[in-house]
Amino acid sequence: MTSDLEVAQQIAQAVAVKALQMQADAGPVDFDNREDIKALKDSGDAAAQVIIDEILDELRPDDARLSEERPDDLTRLDADRVWITDPIDGTSNFGRRGTEFAVHVALWERDKGFTAAAVGAPAEGRILLNDEPTGFVLPERGLDDPVRIVSSRSRPSNVTKAKEGKALFEEFLKDAGVTNAGVEIVPTSSAGIKTVRIIDGHGDVYINDSGFFEWDAAAPYALAVAHGLKVTHSDGSKIEFNQRDIKVDSFVVARPELHPHIIEFIQLHKPK
Fold first, then answer.
1. Nearest-CA neighbor of 160 among 198, 207, 100?
2. Hey, which residues does 129 pair with through a beta bridge?
3. Which of 93, 184, 222, 260 is the 20 to 30 Å CA partner of 204?
4. pLDDT digits (tens, 9 = 90+) for 63-116
5. pTM score, two decimals?
6. DSSP bridge partners of 105
C-alpha cells in the first residue's frame, strides 16, 4: 500500500512536471503583458489542482481536503484526516516564468498534527519531505555571520521594510549577542521556497506579519519542524490547523537559537 508520505511525494512530483511543462509551452515572458502572466498563473493553478484531486481520488478518496483552488467543504472540521494543499505557491513568480514557486502538500491528522508533508521546488528538481531526515543538522553560524531574513519582494515584514526598522533590528540583535554583522535581506518568493532556503543554510529567519492562509503555511510548517526549526505566530504562540477560520495571521520560521530574539523584537516594536 502506498504510504501517506509517498502520496504527498507523488503529488508534488506530478505537479512539478506539469508546471515546468506549462512554463516551457508558454514561451518567454513579456513583463508588460499582464494578461499573459495572469493566464499562466490561473491555468497553472487549475491544472495542478486537477492532478491533486486525481491522485487523492485514487489513493485517499475518504480523506477530507482543504485547498486554495477548491471550495472549502466544512465537513473537514469533523474529519480525522485532512489534506491541506497549495497547488502552486508563488503563482506570480510562476506566471513570470520564474524559478521560486513551490508545491505544498500536507496531511493533517487529528491529535497527531502533520504526519506527511512535501514541499516541491520544481525548478530546482527537488522535493523535500517531513520524514525527520536522519543525521540532518542545520549549518553552524557565528557572531560574524549576518542574520539572513528571507523576505517577500511584494510584502516584506514590518521588521525590515523601513531602513529605520532594519537599523533597530540590527542594534537589537547585536545587543543580544546574536550577531556583529547586522541583517541581510534575501528576497525570495513562496513560503515553501523561503523555508527551503533556511533548511539549506541560505537563510536564518522568515517573518510573515501580514498573514496568509492555511494552505500557504501547512506544508512549510511541517517541513520546518521536521528539520529542527521553530515555527510560531509572531507572538510566539502555537499555530493551529484545520480551523474554521483558515487565516493564519502571522508566521515566523527561525533557527531555534534565533527564534526567541525574533519574537521579542517583534513584540517590542509591534504597531500600537
1. 207
2. 118
3. 93
4. 999 999 999 989 999 999 999 999 999 999 999 999 999 999 999 999 999 999
5. 0.95
6. 85, 118
Helix (H) or strand (E) segment spanning residue 98:
none
Q: Under 8 Å CB-to-CB from 89, ≥6 apart: which residues?
A: 101, 102, 103, 104, 190, 191, 192, 215, 216
How many of the other CB atoms lie within 10 Å of CB of 11? 27
Cell numbers 511541517 correspond to what residue? 222
Q: Quote the strand ranges of the chain, DSSP E.
A: 64-67, 81-89, 102-109, 113-121, 126-129, 147-151, 183-187, 205-208, 212-213, 230-232, 247-248, 251-254
Going along the chain from its start, the domains and CATH numbers come out as 4-129 (3.30.540.10), 147-268 (3.40.190.80)
> From CA 168, how far away is CA 162, in angstroms rounded?
10
